[in-house]
């Protein structure tokens, strides 16, 4: 899978054509190896004719360590492409992963290490709203692409001062709109109790939900927040139960998602409809609670669940299971976070194929001009689209309900762009 013919050629025999198309070769300002055929004056740090170096920052330890499975799925995809496809456009991908423990100051430290010492081409996947918020000023000042960050904060798409940073997954406001629409149809007089993480992530989704129900018969009966340093959310859950709300909106990261689900299951006097946000909907979050205790829980999805039998004969899912077993033999492919990693790595592959010149600027421009790009691991009907005034690659989701030992999709894919209009500042 080579770069588009309109891109810069990467071999000596076509250098003259590349020079005409992209403006000639110049050394990157940082002194990194120059990729053949770069656009004049643009950065080629971390990319050569035969390699691309990416850096990811994840909470491999700490309260959000469940997300540590994501880079394993990414690495398996890149190992597969490197070994069997010759890399991306003839360039082998090196993926360097750093642990920030879900601590923003540590994320800044690791971003500096990746950019200044490892000299990566791009920061690919900074996980978490707090960590990405802490690092995006640095990335944009250094003009380093911060691509497909693993957080759905709406500001990645509405902010215009950070053109080098872009999200990937549906933003939290759009996700909140999906839940609000569901309640308007199914429980138009719902009284909702909300638990949310007291940071940009939790507030973004909660505020989006409140705006989406404005003017309807749905009300917020109670709200409780928690800190990522809290040992438990049991006190908050007791307070919410006293509200008598008939819907519980669970806006948490995995550790606290499990705690909230378990607390809800233990309470025999409160039986609300439980909606858990997508980032805590993984089987790894639900299983410790006991599948019998999470029946009927509702969430929303945008990529294929490896536990859903409807994808058993799906070509992309079959490829995923085969290559995960081959390139990540110690990992269980049924874990959705591995599938998330595979999906976002495949999305980066598509973005690189759209790059006209193999430079940091070229990647920045490519991810902001995606046109209905299809990725095999995304749900049918979910594609990637961006534009000059649209920094949200994915804005479609489908509701799902937990039944038996897996999620079951229901309803149609909801394109929040069409249903609710674009998000703006």
TrEMBL record:
<dbReference type="InterPro" id="IPR028082">
    <property type="entry name" value="Peripla_BP_I"/>
</dbReference>
<protein>
    <submittedName>
        <fullName>ABC transporter substrate-binding protein</fullName>
    </submittedName>
</protein>
<feature type="signal peptide">
    <location>
        <begin position="1"/>
        <end position="20"/>
    </location>
</feature>
<keyword id="KW-0732">Signal</keyword>
<comment type="similarity">
    <text>Belongs to the leucine-binding protein family.</text>
</comment>
<dbReference type="InterPro" id="IPR028081">
    <property type="entry name" value="Leu-bd"/>
</dbReference>
<dbReference type="Pfam" id="PF13458">
    <property type="entry name" value="Peripla_BP_6"/>
</dbReference>
<feature type="domain" description="Leucine-binding protein">
    <location>
        <begin position="51"/>
        <end position="403"/>
    </location>
</feature>
